[in-house]
């Protein structure tokens, strides 16, 4: 397409068309799909999410991978950003999606020699690992499900019945049997 002088009627017409179309066609909405404002994350077909990052010093992008959740993709982007730049030397336009999230434990001399395939593998595995800890609230439990089951009739001793009742209340206290903090 030929370049149009700034003051011509064609340039004004294009500017009016851009205004008329609104923010649905702006660069911000193309880079951040509706409901996702994390850097490096794009929505794919069938509800999956992809993570990509620009490789420093080149004009290419590194495809990190496809994920089931946008959170996983954002964590993978953060891990790849850490692998490329380190914890404190980010270029000015770059920033972490989750600044307080733990980073992989990689020594500085090893981090400097990582290949793109290594960074992709580390980012995918670290993001999937961290996504397990960023869990939303647990679903509400109905009162019928929260009551402990009756003790089994085979237990004859009083000590055994008390032990079974203690185990039943320990697993139905909302922790779902997990010993995780959080």
Automatic annotation (TrEMBL):
<dbReference type="InterPro" id="IPR001471">
    <property type="entry name" value="AP2/ERF_dom"/>
</dbReference>
<feature type="domain" description="AP2/ERF">
    <location>
        <begin position="37"/>
        <end position="99"/>
    </location>
</feature>
<keyword id="KW-0539">Nucleus</keyword>
<dbReference type="InterPro" id="IPR016177">
    <property type="entry name" value="DNA-bd_dom_sf"/>
</dbReference>
<protein>
    <recommendedName>
        <fullName>AP2/ERF domain-containing protein</fullName>
    </recommendedName>
</protein>
<dbReference type="GO" id="GO:0000976">
    <property type="term" value="F:transcription cis-regulatory region binding"/>
</dbReference>
<keyword id="KW-0805">Transcription regulation</keyword>
<keyword id="KW-0804">Transcription</keyword>
<dbReference type="GO" id="GO:0005634">
    <property type="term" value="C:nucleus"/>
</dbReference>
<dbReference type="GO" id="GO:0003700">
    <property type="term" value="F:DNA-binding transcription factor activity"/>
</dbReference>
<dbReference type="GO" id="GO:0006950">
    <property type="term" value="P:response to stress"/>
</dbReference>
<comment type="similarity">
    <text>Belongs to the AP2/ERF transcription factor family. ERF subfamily.</text>
</comment>
<dbReference type="InterPro" id="IPR036955">
    <property type="entry name" value="AP2/ERF_dom_sf"/>
</dbReference>
<keyword id="KW-0238">DNA-binding</keyword>
<dbReference type="GO" id="GO:0045893">
    <property type="term" value="P:positive regulation of DNA-templated transcription"/>
</dbReference>
